[in-house]
Design a protein that fits this description.
The complex is a heterodimer of chains A (957) and B (1070). Chain A contains 35 helices and 25 strands. Classes of the chains: A alpha/beta (957), B alpha/beta (1070). Chains A and B meet through α2, β3, α5, α13 and α14 of A and α3, α4, α5, α6 and α7 of B. The structure holds iron/sulfur cluster (SF4).
């Protein structure tokens, strides 16, 4: 039967003609089929017909895929796609060394076949003739074979089968007329199908086409041969001169990408707006502004569409922005399974259960509502594990199962224990369904979770149909590759966001097109797929030219074009050629581009109440008078919020509540505490008073813990030394004897300090080894000492009532005091976790108060003449540093660093300074005088290592 | 000068065919030459796609394309210009494109992803941990030794750095040092030296003791680590021991070096394998991989090589002086077959040694090039600026190599004002930070004065610094001088307060018992709790700080703090609840919005910057999510890595920065030009980084070693490599200074303080200006002659005070306004309670059928399970018999007996008997008589904006244009009467069928429900157009019930085959 063509540009009345024919065929009782490319178009047309005719009876609107499957007898099973992916993965893995590449190549081949962009026979020929990469060709053969063995129709098969059947069997189609509409660019496979259909029925094909116009260049390859075939049966539709749209829109519809002259336009008529946006944030604001303006103009929301160039993240970003601006929006999207929170959590559980995943994996699942566990409980368990630095799956499980609610880790046990990972995962999914969707759960609160759950069940169903059951890896990979279709909300009363290629068929009152900057629209061509480039019909630019001009022609009231003029890094972006083309066509009538900033600095420019408030806030520092004036006119809620915003920075660092200060009124202070306060009172407050406990232990055991263990070891080592060597003083010759003693002390000390942590955890193992090395260094140094101070006491408490600082008492314990045998001279030692700097005269100014205070205390309260004191690093190696009396050097106080010896006078001066610094610190603690006053950094700046900034709130550059 | 108007030397350069090596001095218009060269090629017939330009930065590639697009307009409307079709990219961009195009041959997925520096760092860190774990499991001792020596963090830095350096050199494994010399000999020598000294007159008692200790050490056969550091024995009285000690140390270090190498070489491949696995898992390559993989592909695959090489007629490489060996090899491979090749560069602008650029390559290539030319005519700078540049660098660069820049542009008469000046601070006796503060103040005053002259605005000025670490000093000083600033120093983003505050909140969302995060959040403007409040909370908490908040045990706090904590808890718990269903970007945005943190940021003087940083964080979270999904722990880990590794990321750019004095590093200014350039901090002495590891030219690795007590000692090789590197660094320092000075168009301000350290930039600047630093005094102002031009020198006191008053203080608040605002300083009001969480998303189907509506009427929850959740019946045990018989019967009556074959024999008998009953029935006979009866006829109509779809079993026309619709039912009837069943179960179906026919225009409808078990008891209803409104009301009610449904369960008979039963619903017990 003859092919009849209806050709003409968009807005030439083709749709009306198509519907009339369709309705006429219904009236004739011919049960016609109206053939469209995709389901969304089927729904659109079905609605339109129902609206026109009241109801649709006796004819169908059908997609090409549905019709082809019906004719070809190929059933539709969504699970086939999952199975085909699994088969492809198996084939790629079997192919050898580059499975990802082979998988990806097979996938793009299939995509081309599915799209109809290439003929299967052509690929098979290329395989035969060695035109394809040998590895890929082999893999392709195996793939086709494996699909057949699984009974899965390969990509493009339904269309091919239908074409074959139409060509061979009369009964393939019962002769009902077919009217095809909405096919812009017919692939070779689609063309072949229509040609075969043409043999069996009356076929009318409506195509958007205007010969010779650049806008339609993308279609010429498929349309030109049809024009030849349909000669004599071509109904040409001319573009309507006017269709109710503003002149500027009509001019664009007719003039875009056309060399023809058009009548000059008058002034800008509001039909087109051009928005130049600063970066992505500006773009979102431009879209919000344009959509609100359209709504204000009276355009119903469902008549507004926002068009984005491709499937990137722009659509999601714009959808969130519109939602945040309270503009209802519908945005259907397809997400990778792992990107949906439920999917990510399920995959993390699988990783933990099957592939040695870590703590974060397990907790990602436990934190998800699917686990059924309460968040505080989960947080508590995690906090404990993190504090112990526990990462190893086995240990984590042990700890968790010991918890009262630990038995609820059933999902994990199920996955671990089951022989069939597939069935185990099904049990887990079924198990979490009541938690997520049961009667007690919130209905429809998280549609993405529903869809992801459904997709996971779909994957299991599909894989369970495979000849060889999927193993854990395959199961995980299949889940990772699964796609979740998330419906974007209620369509009625909502602005929709669609991709450029999908904004077809419908006419819309308001259209907002984004991406009119370089790299946006036209989209760049993807790197060539594996198919010969000669088979590709049009470049992306040609195709986008058609889509863009069709979109413009389908706009009835207002078209808003948005281009970014700079990106997030502030780099300028050139306009797209389409933008320039619009300017060219509109000529003088082109509206002036409007600049849309990233954020509103002027309250009057604000698009939403929040923006307005932000703009007012921004004026506070720049124009206080206007700020005050605007504030006066603001509502109570706005005033409150702005007041809070300002007050948030006015935090006094002082401690003021008497109840909090009372604790310090009569108490004594330790030297460590005073030293800490003197170094930075803000750090003192955070570290010693607020004491936030770090949650992450990290691998290296923290400095404080190291210090505690180190002190403990040395105390026991030296106390036990006389029993090992028979005297107090250690000589080099004793070293071989004491090694075992030191290691024993280390072992004991670690054991007492473990507090439930795993002794084989890397942190403790390293600490043990480092202590063995560092403290051995210290012991060696001890044996090499050349001074005469032999008698030692450890952890000596400062006697009551403590050292009087003048208004405050200092108490505490001194790590070690060394004395001379027959003279009452003493040296104090304090162990430090790290190597102290050069001290001597600058000991107080560098914030080191402990040693001078201890010297004073020993002298005043213990009856010894303390002639010096040093800090000694527990890291071994380094020289002890501190302050020593020069005149005592000749009396046995030798072997210390030259720089640290002070004259008598200076020595006394330093002691006095230390006492007064300590007194001042004590007084300030009592009155809560906390400030940002670091003295141990670089000229009053905070030392680089201090991490308290986020809590003490110092402003650091 | 427009792109295509060229000088003679430029034009000559564009006319060379074949290979050209072009040395282009700063500001000599090389881009114009490049554009003209490309235009010539295109005019001669080359397709734009066959031109390849390789630039050093993305920005340069964009700029080039932009200029090309303007220079070569499009031929027809709406078509891209040929200029924008030229392939211009960085070398990494080129590699990524070619690898994607040849993904299969390269063994890569075609959707290959490229990791940026931060992402690669995060993966590498994770890979290091995995490598350590694996090494521990397989062969623990070597890795534990390394970890003991270096600690986990330091070892990680060392391994990552070693790997990076080796890869940049194209090496994989460094050679292990040769076996160390035996220790015995030097030890014996030292022992004899000790003995000899002890036998003689020992200078002091302490010296004797030291000697004895040393002897004792040597006597106990010490390990090399114990001998690696003998510094403690080399006291002044024991000078003679110095050399023998050194010999022992050297030998000991050789031993340590070798064993450290051996251990590292066991760990390195493990790390690489783990890193590789990580990248493969993500289908990603890092920057080094891009180059390595493409090189490998082009060298090994002749087909791809030919294809790539034949793709370009003209290849231009810009900034060739900054390429390294691997890149050079790659460029040769890509361009081998190109007819024309142009290499453009300037050896004096080679400043990327830290990225392994090798300026030697440039020199070798240039010297061996078949055609080489040079551009020296400078269009950028005024003659006095060029005179100073030539004076300074003529002396600094190797004699004979420097080609003076020749003024080539005409400047307006107004340009006669002062062009080059030196701002000096007399800092004698002062510490460097003080001097820097004073210099910044003096420079700020000078720039303010220049802006005050009215020729240049703040946006015309730039302050260039060699290092960004003190940029804040200059930023503050400029701000105090009333000049708006924009810091473009790319290093601080992850450490800025706003980013850290929100990151702390995210950490708290992850775990409420993270005390550090909680304290940060509470103290920050997110909550604004006072220190009293924090302390009160600590007193109230026995354990974690969150407990008192959770259980509202806040009695000991001030009212205002208590209410802040309650408001915080409310918001926090809502955010936590939402976090399980929302994405990361949304989460970050919600944290900011719910706590009005953006408002708190915006009220600050630098509010726009803070706010832009927050928006950038939302974007970064979005980017992370696209790669890894909504993995909060992963995001936090990544932010933490980026912060702790000080990964450079520029702060967000704000629009306000357009008319502000920009502050940037000299490196970032390369390729740019500014009317007024201030090069500051010239007295800064170079900081010599203490490299923990370095790779020598021959591939050997120098390491930092550990002595027996954990102290660090550099291996002799490391010392040697570092010395060599230092020499190269010094040469590069001069080139960096050259780049800085040649950015200036009209005015050049040089600032620093005296005395100038000998290795600072200021020393040669003073020498070139002929200034004797010993003679300058604060308060002086004088000029020096540079050729025919003058240079002004101003010397200031070392005070951080900015002379004069600021022009205007943008942030100052007039007192009167301050009073008006005092109402805001009242104690903070309570936060209003929030409304409960997000509303339920409504279920809005676009299409419904009778069965869907009916299902909802029978049980809302089953509808929800089947149609919303799409819960399918469990795969096993579903009885199919009933529906299969029904389907087959319908098909047979429609004339297709095929389905009968698929039934069991019992079902088939039943189906056949039902068909027979139908055929024999009165209705069956009546239908047989009707003409034009259609079976299974689809219908659709709209109600309440929902398409109602269905299909009639039988549809035919009867008298008066009326319609007969027959619905065949295969239900088992039992005792029930058909009419009762229809009334009870099928009323809605009647409504829908009748409406469909009436809407399609039938004046009347006869609707017959025929139960095939009793085909004579047909239930018939008749409807006419007048009934349509009532029917529509009935249908609308049902639709409305569904649209507003809460999906309540109605347990009962419907539960029987419900897919929800016992899965998400307890059925009859529910
Ligand atoms: S960051 Fe600075 S002010 Fe804050 S505690 Fe540390 S040293 Fe003190």
């Amino acid at each position: 039967m003859p092919l009849r063509l209806l050709v003409g540009p968009v807005r030439s009345g083709k749709l009306g003609a198509v519907l009339e024919r369709f309705e006429q065929a219904i009236a004739n009782g011919q049960r016609p089929s109206l053939l469209v490319p995709a389901a969304s178009e089927r729904d659109e047309l079905e609605r339109e017909i129902c609206e026109r005719a009241g109801a649709l009876i006796g004819g169908e609107v059908v997609t090409l895929d549905e019709l082809a499957r019906r004719i070809g007898g190929v059933r539709r099973d969504d699970r086939d796609a999952v199975r085909a992916r699994a088969v492809r993965q198996r084939v790629a893995v079997a192919a050898g060394s580059r499975p990802r590449a082979i998988y990806s190549a097979l996938e793009s081949l299939d995509a081309e076949l599915e799209r109809g962009g290439v003929d299967r026979a052509e690929i098979e020929r290329a395989v035969r003739e060695g035109e394809l990469d040998a590895g890929l060709a082999g893999a392709y053969d195996s793939f086709v074979e494996a699909l057949a063995a699984e009974g899965i129709a390969p990509a493009g098969a339904p269309l091919a089968a239908a074409t074959r059947r139409l060509e061979r069997e009369l009964a393939a189609w019962d002769g009902r007329p077919v009217i095809a509409y909405g096919f812009d660019d017919l692939s070779p496979a689609q063309l072949a199908f229509l040609q075969a259909l043409e043999l069996r029925c009356e076929l009318v094909l409506a195509l958007p086409y205007e010969p010779g116009r650049a806008a339609f260049a993308a279609l010429s390859a498929s349309v030109e041969p049809l024009l030849v075939r349909a000669e004599g049966a071509i109904e040409e539709h001319r573009a309507s001169a006017a269709y109710g749209a503003p002149d500027s829109l009509v001019a664009l519809a007719r003039g875009l990408f056309s060399d023809r002259d058009h009548a000059a336009l008058g002034e800008s008529d509001g039909g087109v707006r051009l928005l130049e946006a600063v970066s992505t944030d500006g773009e979102a604001r431009a879209v919000i502004g344009a959509a609100s303006a359209m709504l204000k103009r009276g355009i119903p929301a469902e008549q507004i569409v926002v068009v984005v160039p491709g499937s990137g993240t722009r659509a999601g970003r714009l959808a969130s922005a519109l939602e945040a601006a309270s503009i209802p929006v519908v945005h259907d999207r397809i997400e990778p399974f792992a990107a949906v929170p439920f999917g990510g959590a399920l995959l993390a559980l699988c990783r933990y259960a099957w592939h040695g995943g870590d703590r974060d994996d397990l907790f990602r699942w436990l934190r998800s509502p699917a686990s059924g566990l309460a968040r505080p409980f989960v947080d508590d368990c995690e906090a404990r594990l993190r504090m112990r630095g526990e990462q190893r799956p086995h240990e984590i499980l042990g700890v968790l199962q010991a918890e009262p609610k630990g038995r609820r880790l059933g999902d994990l046990d199920t996955l671990r224990a089951a022989e069939s990972p597939l069935e185990a995962l099904r049990v887990v999914l079924e198990g979490c369904a009541p938690r997520l969707f049961g009667l007690a759960a919130e209905r429809v609160a998280d549609p993405a979770a529903h869809r992801a759950w459904d997709a996971a069940i779909g994957v299991l169903d599909a894989l369970s149909m495979l000849g060889r059951k999927a193993d854990r890896d395959e199961l995980e990979t299949a889940l990772e590759r699964a796609r979740v279709r998330v419906a974007g909300g209620d369509r009625s009363g909502a602005v929709s966001i669609v991709e450029l290629g999908r904004a077809r068929l419908r006419t819309m009152a308001g259209v907002i097109v984004t991406g009119l900057e370089e790299g946006g629209v036209p989209r760049r061509d993807r790197p060539p797929a594996l198919v010969p480039t000669t088979l590709r019909q049009a470049t992306q630019e040609e195709r986008d030219r058609f889509l863009f001009s069709a979109l413009v022609a389908r706009t009835d009231d207002q078209l808003v074009l948005v281009r970014q003029i700079s990106d997030a890094q502030g780099r300028e972006l050139a306009p797209s050629p389409f933008w320039l083309e619009v300017l060219r066509v509109l000529g003088e009538a082109a509206p002036a581009p409007e600049l849309v900033r990233e954020t509103a600095h002027e309250p009057a420019d604000a698009l939403t109440p929040r923006e307005r408030l932000r703009a007012i806030a921004g004026l506070e520092a720049l124009d206080a008078e206007r700020f005050a004036a605007l504030l006066a006119g603001a509502g109570a809620d706005e005033r409150d919020r702005l007041a809070r915003a300002r007050a948030a920075w006015k935090r006094s660092t002082r401690i003021e509540r008497p109840e909090l200060l009372a604790r310090h009124a009569d108490r004594s202070f330790s030297a460590t505490e005073l030293e800490s306060f003197a170094r930075c009172s803000a750090r003192w407050l955070v570290e010693r008073e607020i004491r936030p406990k770090p949650i992450d232990g990290g691998i290296d055991i923290d400095v404080r813990q190291r210090g505690i263990v180190g002190h403990d070891v040395l105390k026991h080592f030296f106390k036990g030394l006389p029993a090992v060597i028979g005297r107090e003083r250690l000589e080099p010759a004793d070293l071989p004897l004491v090694r075992g003693h030191l290691n024993g002390c280390i072992e004991r000390s670690i054991e007492t300090n473990l507090r439930g942590s795993d002794p084989d955890g890397l942190g403790w193992v390293l600490l043990r080894r480092q202590l063995e090395r560092d403290l051995w260094g210290l012991v060696e140094r001890e044996s090499e000492r050349t001074d005469d101070f032999d008698v030692r006491s450890y952890e000596v408490s400062i006697p009551e009532p403590g050292l009087d600082l003048g208004g405050a008492m200092m108490k505490g314990r001194i790590d070690r005091i060394d004395r001379q045998q027959w003279v009452a001279h003493a040296v104090v030692r304090d162990y430090k976790s790290s190597q102290p700097p050069a001290l001597g005269e600058s000991i107080v100014s560098k914030g080191f108060l402990q040693i001078p205070l201890y010297i004073r205390a020993v002298r005043e309260l213990m009856g010894y003449e303390a002639v010096g004191g040093v800090y000694q690093s527990l890291r071994g190696g380094g020289d002890p540093r501190g302050m020593l009396r020069l005149d005592a050097r000749e009396e046995g106080l030798s072997g210390f660093v030259e720089h640290d010896y002070l004259t008598d006078e200076l020595f006394e001066q330093v002691l006095d300074d230390a006492v007064s610094a300590a007194r001042s610190a004590a007084e300030r603690i009592r009155v809560g005088d906390v400030r940002h006053d670091p003295s141990d950094g670089d000229r009053g700046a905070c030392p680089a290592w201090c991490a308290m900034g986020p809590i003490c709130r110092v402003e650091r550059s | 000068m427009s792109a295509l108007e060229l000088t003679d030397e430029q034009r000559a350069a564009t006319l060379v065919d074949g290979e050209l090596f072009l040395s282009a001095g700063a500001g000599t218009g090389k881009t114009s030459v490049v554009i003209a060269r490309i235009a010539r090629a295109i005019a001669a017939g080359a397709a734009p796609e066959r031109v390849l330009v390789v630039t050093y930065t993305e920005a340069a590639a964009h700029e080039l394309v932009d200029r090309l697009a303007r220079a070569l307009p499009a031929a027809s409307p709406g078509v891209q210009s040929p200029g924008s079709r030229v392939h211009a990219s960085t070398i990494h961009g080129l590699c990524a494109r070619l690898l994607r195009e040849h993904a299969l041959a390269a063994g890569l997925p075609s959707d290959l992803r490229v990791l940026n520096e931060g992402q690669a760092r995060v993966l590498a860190r994770a890979a290091f941990s995995a490598a350590v774990e694996r090494a521990r499991a397989e062969d623990p001792e070597p890795v534990l030794e390394l970890l003991t020596d270096y600690g986990f963090g330091e070892l990680r830095t060392l391994v990552l750095e070693l790997d990076r350096k080796l890869r940049a050199r194209g090496e994989s494994t460094p050679p292990v040092p040769p076996p160390a010399r035996p220790l015995a000999e030097p030890v014996a020598a030292l022992q004899s030296a000790c003995e000899a000294m002890l036998a003689g007159a020992v200078p002091s008692e302490q010296a004797r003791k030291k000697l004895e200790r040393l002897q004792a050490l040597l006597a106990r056969d010490p390990a090399p680590a114990e001998l690696a550091n003998l510094r403690r024995f080399s006291i002044r009285p024991l000078q003679e021991l110095k050399e023998p000690c050194k010999a022992v140390q050297l030998a000991a270090l050789e031993h340590l070096d070798r064993s450290a190498h051996e251990r590292l070489l066991q760990l390195l491949p493990r790390f690489r394998a783990a890193y590789q696995r990580g990248k493969e898992r993500e289908g990603a390559l890092d920057f080094d991989d891009l180059q390595e993989r493409l090189c490998e592909l082009l060298e090994q695959d002749a087909v791809v090589r030919a294809e790539v090489q034949e793709a370009y007629d003209l290849v231009l490489v810009d900034e060739f002086q900054d390429t390294n060996g691997l890149q050079c090899r790659l460029l040769d491979l890509v361009s081998a077959a190109s007819r024309d090749r142009v290499f453009v560069g300037d050896e004096f602008q080679s400043i990327y040694r830290f990225r392994d650029a090798d300026v030697g390559l440039f020199r070798t290539r240039r010297d061996g090039a078949s055609a080489a030319s040079a551009l020296t005519g400078n269009f950028r700078s005024r003659p006095p600026v060029l005179a100073f540049v030539n004076e300074l660098f003529g002396g600094l660069f190797d004699e004979g190599t420097y080609r003076p820049l020749v003024p080539a542009a005409a400047f307006p008469a107004s340009a006669a004002a002062e062009a080059v000046e030196l701002v000096l601070v007399d800092g004698r006796g002062r510490l460097m930070p003080e001097r820097r503060e004073a210099e910044a103040a003096a420079l700020a005053a000078r720039l303010r004065a220049i802006v005050g002259e009215g020729v240049h605005g703040p946006g015309d000025c730039v302050v260039l610094l060699r290092s960004g670490s003190d940029a804040a000093v200059y930023e503050r000083a400029l701000g105090r001088a009333g000049l708006p600033t924009a810091s473009l120093i790319a290093q601080r983003y992850y450490g800025v307060q706003a980013v850290r505050d929100v990151t702390a909140y995210l950490a708290l969302v992850r775990n409420r018992f993270d005390d550090t995060a909680l304290a940060s959040v509470l103290a920050s403007p997110l909550v604004g709790l006072s220190n009293d409040g924090l302390l009160g909370l600590r007193r109230a908490a026995q354990a974690a700080l969150y407990y008192p908040i959770q259980y509202d045990q806040l009695e000991g706090l001030e009212d205002v703090d208590r209410s802040k904590l309650r408001a915080f808890r409310e918001r926090y718990e809502a955010i936590v609840a939402a976090s399980s269903a929302c994405g990361l970007a949304e989460l970050v945005q919600r944290v900011i919005d719910d706590h009005d943190y953006d408002l708190a940021s915006l009220v600050r003087r630098d509010g726009r910057q803070r706010d832009a940083n927050l928006r950038k964080l939302v974007q970064l979270a979005d980017e992370f999510e696209r790669l890894r999904g909504a993995d909060l722990a992963g995001l936090l880990d990544s932010l933490d890595t980026l912060e702790s590794e000080a990964v450079r990321e520029a702060e967000a750019v704000t629009e306000a920065q357009a008319d502000a004095v920009r502050i940037m590093t000299i490196h970032a200014s390369k390729g740019l030009e500014f009317p007024v350039v201030a090069v500051a901090d010239l007295a800064r002495a170079p900081v010599r980084a203490t490299a923990g590891v370095a790779v020598a030219a021959d591939g050997r690795v120098g390491l930092t070693l550990r002595d027996a007590h954990g102290g660090s000692v550099r291996s002799p090789l490391l010392e040697a490599i570092v010395d060599e590197a230092r020499r190269e660094e010094d040469a590069e320092r001069s080139r960096v200074l050259y780049v800085a000075l040649t950015r200036a168009q009209h005015r050049l301000v040089l600032a620093g303080s005296v005395p100038a350290p000998a290795d600072s930039d200021l020393a040669p600047v003073l020498a070139a200006a002929g200034v004797d630093e010993d003679r300058v005094r604060a308060g002086e102002e004088f000029t020096c002659e540079i050729g025919a031009h003058l240079l002004t020198v101003r010397v200031h006191d070392c005070v951080a005070q900015i002379p004069g008053e600021p022009i205007a203080s943008a942030g100052s608040t007039a007192p009167a306004v301050g009073e008006q605002l005092s109402l805001l300083d009242q104690p903070v009001e309570l936060l209003p309670p929030l409304s409960s969480g997000p509303g339920r998303a409504r279920h809005r189907p676009r299409v419904l059928s009778f069965s869907a509506l009916d299902l909802h009427e029978r049980c809302g929850f089953r509808y929800y399970a089947e149609r919303v959740l799409r819960l399918r019946a469990a795969p096993v045990g579903a009885g199919e018999g009933g529906t299969a018989v029904g389907d087959a019967v319908h098909r047979v009556i429609a004339g297709d007996p095929a389905l009968l074959e698929q039934l069991s024999s019992g079902d088939r008998d039943r189906a056949e008997s039902l068909v027979a009953e139908w055929r024999a029935s009165a209705l069956g006979q009546r239908v047989d008589q009707l003409a034009g009866v259609r079976h299974e006829l689809e219908f659709a109509f709209l109600e309440r904006d929902v398409v109602i779809r269905g299909s009639f079993d039988l549809h035919g026309s009867i008298a008066d244009g009326g319609t007969l619709i027959v619905d065949l039912k295969t239900n088992r009837l039992g005792d029930a009467a058909p009419s009762a069943i229809v009334a009870d179960r099928y009323r809605l179906q009647q409504v829908i069928y009748a409406l469909a026919a009436l809407r399609a225009g039938a004046p009347a409808v006869e609707l017959a429900f025929c139960f095939l078990e009793r085909p004579d008891a047909v239930v018939v209803e008749r409807f006419a157009q007048r009934d349509a409104a009532g029917l529509a009301d009935e249908l609308r009610d049902a639709i409305d019930r569904l649209l507003s449904s809460e999906f309540e369960a109605s347990p009962g008979l419907t539960c029987r085959d419900c897919p929800a039963l016992d899965r998400i619903c307890a059925g009859t017990a529910a």
